[in-house]
């Protein structure tokens, strides 16, 4: 297996089940211990970094809901409980196209524990540029 393919495989969790209904997607994911984001974060007890959780939410939305992929900001992001190696979690995303907002949440499969949640703004590349003020 070439290095690029191996790196791609170890950047994302294993999707065990996927459900897509309209603008909502839910993925049941196994958080493989080999995921590169665990390396050095932290040595005594690896924890999945928040930036990886944000990347996965956007990647899920782009892949399953065909949303824009240009990050425009985030709001109300909370990391309530750590996601550990070998955990199984549900990643739920909901695309609100009229607002260019992606709602996301990571929770336990039984729904009793919320790991993270928030809202990410996503724009097509041209729209993102037109929203910036001239410098």
Task: Quickly describe the structure.
The chain has helices at 3-11, 50-65, 125-131; strands at residues 14-21, 24-30, 70-79, 88-96, 101-107, 114-123. The longest helix is centred in the middle third of the chain and has 16 residues, at 50-65. The chain is built from three helices and six strands.
Could you name the key traits of this structure?
135 residues, six-stranded antiparallel sheet, 3 helices, 6 strands, globular
Describe the protein in words.
The protein is an alpha+beta fold and 135 residues long. Helices cover 24% and strands 38% of the residues. The protein has three helices and six strands; from the N terminus they run H-E-E-H-E-E-E-E-H. It has helices at 3-11, 50-65, 125-131, and strands spanning 14-21, 24-30, 70-79, 88-96, 101-107, 114-123. The chain is globular, with a radius of gyration of 16 Å.
The major beta sheet can be summarized as: 6 strands, antiparallel
Global structural class: alpha+beta
Number of helices: 3
Give the low-confidence spans: none
Mean pLDDT: 89
Strand order of the largest sheet: 1-2-4-5-6-3
Intertermini distance: 46 Å
Q: What sort of overall outline do the alpha carbons produce when their principal axes are compared?
A: globular
Ordered list of secondary-structure elements with their pairings:
Blueprint: H1 3-11, E1 14-21, E2 24-30, H2 50-65, E3 70-79, E4 88-96, E5 101-107, E6 114-123, H3 125-131
Antiparallel strand pairs: 1-2, 2-4, 3-6, 4-5, 5-6
């Amino acid at each position: 297996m070439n290095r690029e393919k191996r790196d791609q495989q170890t950047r994302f969790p294993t999707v065990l089940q996927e459900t897509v209904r309209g603008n909502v997607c839910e993925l049941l994911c196994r958080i493989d211990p080999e995921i590169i984001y665990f390396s050095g974060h932290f040595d005594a007890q690896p924890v999945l970094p928040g930036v990886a959780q944000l990347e996965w939410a956007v990647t899920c939305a782009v892949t399953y809901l065909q949303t824009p992929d240009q990050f425009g900001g985030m709001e109300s992001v909370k990391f309530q409980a750590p996601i550990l190696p070998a955990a199984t979690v549900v990643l739920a995303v909901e695309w609100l196209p009229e607002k260019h907002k992606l709602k996301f949440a990571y929770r336990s499969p039984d729904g009793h524990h919320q790991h993270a949640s928030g809202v990410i703004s996503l724009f097509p590349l041209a729209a993102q540029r037109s929203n910036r003020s001239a410098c």
